[in-house]
Write a structure and sequence with these properties.
The complex is a heterodimer of chains A (334) and B (323). Chain A is an alpha/beta fold and 334 residues long. Chain A is built from twelve helices and twelve strands. Chain B is 31% helix and 24% strand. Chain B has an eight-stranded mixed sheet, sandwiched between helices. Chain B has a four-stranded antiparallel sheet with strand order 2-1-4-5. In chain B, α4 (110-121) crosses α5 (126-139). Classes of the chains: A alpha/beta (334), B alpha/beta (323).
């Protein structure tokens, strides 16, 4: 697509154990040393368009955070290219950090406990010349107000804030760099529902004001539905379905997406209704040892012989919706 | 009417810290019938976990149950010695904790831990205990249970570990299981499995469940009765669907409205302003008054629990007006 802003092209990321000299000797002697690598992300191609919010959803260990870190230029992919407006992300180096910022899940871990929050927010913009030391206080004040923090808290330390306020600081720190792309990695996962709503509202408001492009990573299907224009569902390192958020939610085409949507508990408002919990059978396979063929095949109800041999690629289903499942191909050829 | 298995009356658990008295649980009353599933929802710091701990007599200093009673099948647990309590725990009342990483002993195999739980209350030899343990693991859906008994907790995934914890809690078919956020750390697909199994187990053995959670959707699909807790007090309770359909307390309403499912995608969510007050310096009267859209001067006074059919709420100005 020509309007691609961030483009990921057949990205793979594997984490391999470091083989030390000791391990090598042990291997020679016939001892068993685990040299398998974790396939965190496998051949993911993805584009994020200017101004949109792409939701990245999946269960723990599916590789969504790794993919987010690659998109942010924090991790280098083992294979494939990440480009930001047709320029390679990693080569851009410092310029890329200016343009892509990340809000992390845990606001306790992502803020330096020994820095005052004014300094936390101002540090990046001063280094990159977005503001000067003299102008920094008013610059910081502006961003604090935008995320709904009282500017008089500027000299406080992170531990003096609640989780929700800390996440506001993290958002202010990211946005004060005036990025073009914001990666939000589970920004509301550790928050209570009422605080979660506040942070989502801050996010929605600033996205509108700043016309910012976002990748929003979450395991919470409800949150993703609320904030994203398009959604990509990940399973074991691969994207299994992608499309307009509402289309995917209303008419999921991959058995995993269907099962995932079914297993989310819904709010029950009628008396005496007995909700059957539909669970996906089995467990997520280990990314150290992914199954042959389609990675969902051990848990899939529609598994065919072909699924055990071949890895399905993303197949266009309907307009923009694509799903990595042979079921959709079958319909087409018949 | 069946007799309630558990009766909690005016339970107060306070923590005497250096900074002052934290009233973590402040006047909680409820009763539970055999086989009933009760949902206890609230945000972090609302006192729901301490309520659960109090039921099992697990509150550690500086915390203490200062008043109120917990009666298990008519017997006042406060009058029991530590030794007698130990005989109750695990056999009559047991608990499943949030984090299965912390609750299983990493240096014992799963089988050894289940064996300990079994033989703490039953006299039987190792072979019989092993058979019982295998059956318990099979019951919670762990495949190949016999061999998995010899695995260590780290060889299990999070969902499997939580199932082991559930299996241990279920072993003596207790009267009550207190489940404290048992699925919060788990993925949705695994959560559905645990919910399914716990409900079945509860139904088959007549075990009553207290399901502590912050997730309204999960509780609404599981629990018959719902209690909403805020700053140590029950602010609203009643049949789950009725309470959620027609919340009377502004806090319950606020919690519901904060759910992304309650708004059009992309539109701002209705939010509760502010954050939970510090339990060290609670305002007099209604603890929610500072965040409440309907608060008036009367809210600075103590709010009584208003009974209304099967439900009750603690508010001077309930949504929909007073009856």
């Amino acid at each position: 697509m020509s309007d691609a802003f961030l483009s990921l092209d057949t990205i793979s990321k594997r984490f391999s154990p470091k083989i030390t000299l000791g391990d090598r000797i042990a291997l020679k002697l016939g001892a068993s040393v685990d040299t398998r690598s974790v396939h965190a992300v496998e051949q993911v191609s993805l584009t994020v368009r200017k101004g949109e919010t792409l939701g990245l959803v999946g269960e723990s260990g599916c590789g969504k955070s790794t993919l987010g870190r690659i998109a942010a230029g924090i991790l280098e992919p083992t294979e494939g290219n990440a480009t930001l407006e047709n320029k390679p992300l990693m080569e851009e180096g410092r310029k890329a950090t200016l343009r892509v910022q990340t809000v992390f899940q845990d606001p306790f871990a992502s803020l330096d406990p020994r820095m005052r929050i004014g300094d936390i927010i101002a540090e990046g913009p001063i280094v990159h010349g977005l503001t000067t030391k003299n102008e920094a206080p008013s610059y910081v004040k502006g961003w604090m107000e935008r995320v709904g923090l009282d500017p008089s808290f500027v000299d406080r330390y992170p531990h003096q804030f609640s989780g929700g306020q800390r996440q506001r600081v993290a958002i202010a720190r990211a946005l004060a760099m005036q990025p073009d792309l914001l990666i939000c990695d589970e920004p509301v996962a550790s928050l209570d529902v009422s605080i979660q709503a506040q942070i989502i509202n801050v996010f929605l408001k600033l996205r509108e004001e700043l016309k910012i492009t976002c990748v929003f990573i979450s395991h919470d299907l409800g949150v993703i539905r609320h904030v994203s224009n398009r959604v990509a569902v990940m399973y074991l390192g691969r994207i299994v379905e992608i499309g307009e958020t509402e289309t995917v939610y209303q008419n999921p085409k991959h058995p995993y997406t269907q099962a995932l949507l079914d297993s989310v508990p819904k709010l029950v408002l009628e008396d005496d209704t007995l909700v059957e919990f539909t669970a996906i059978s089995g467990e997520i396979p280990s990314p150290l040892d992914p199954p042959k063929g389609c990675s969902f095949n051990p848990r899939c109800d529609h598994v065919m012989e072909r699924c055990l041999r071949e890895v399905p690629g993303l197949i266009p289903v309907d307009g923009e919706q694509e799903a990595a499942c042979f079921l959709n191909q079958k319909e087409e050829t018949e | 009417m069946t007799e309630p298995i558990l009766e909690v009356t005016d339970l107060c658990t306070h923590f005497f810290t250096q900074d002052g008295v934290v009233k973590a649980v402040d006047g909680v009353s409820f009763s539970l019938k055999p086989g009933q599933i009760l949902g206890l929802v609230g945000e972090s710091g609302s006192g729901k976990t301490v309520t659960g701990f109090s039921l099992l007599g697990l509150v550690d200093p500086p915390g203490r149950i200062v008043s109120g009673s917990v009666k298990l099948a008519g017997e006042d647990m406060a009058k029991l010695s530590q030794k007698q309590l130990r005989q109750l725990r695990g056999r009559r009342i047991s608990m499943v904790f949030q984090d299965p990483m912390m609750t299983l002993n990493p240096v014992l195999t799963v089988g050894e831990q289940i064996d300990l739980a079994i033989r703490a209350h039953n006299k039987m030899n190792k072979t019989q205990a092993r058979e019982l343990a295998t059956a318990a693991l099979t019951r919670v859906g762990i495949p190949d249970a016999e061999t998995r008994l010899d695995s260590y907790p780290h060889e299990f995934s999070g969902g499997m570990r939580q199932r082991v914890a559930v299996a241990i809690a279920m072993i003596h078919s207790p009267d009550i299981i207190v489940a404290d956020e048992p699925t919060t750390a788990l993925d949705v697909s695994i959560q559905a499995q645990i919910l399914h199994e716990m409900r079945n187990l509860a139904r088959e053995s007549g075990t009553a469940l207290i399901w502590i959670s912050h997730d309204l959707a999960t509780v609404s699909s599981l629990a018959e009765r719902l209690m909403v807790m805020y700053a140590g007090k029950i602010v609203e309770e009643g049949p789950t669907a009725a309470v959620l359909r027609n919340p009377r307390h502004p806090y319950t309403q606020g919690l519901l409205n904060s759910l992304p499912a309650m708004a059009e995608p992309g539109h701002p969510l209705q939010q509760i302003s502010g954050s939970t007050p510090s339990l060290l310096a609670l305002p007099p009267g209604c603890p929610f008054a500072q965040r409440c859209p309907n608060a008036q001067s009367a809210c600075e006074e103590e709010v009584p629990l208003v009974q209304e059919g099967e439900s009750a709420y603690r508010c001077h100005f309930p949504i929909g007006g007073t009856a």
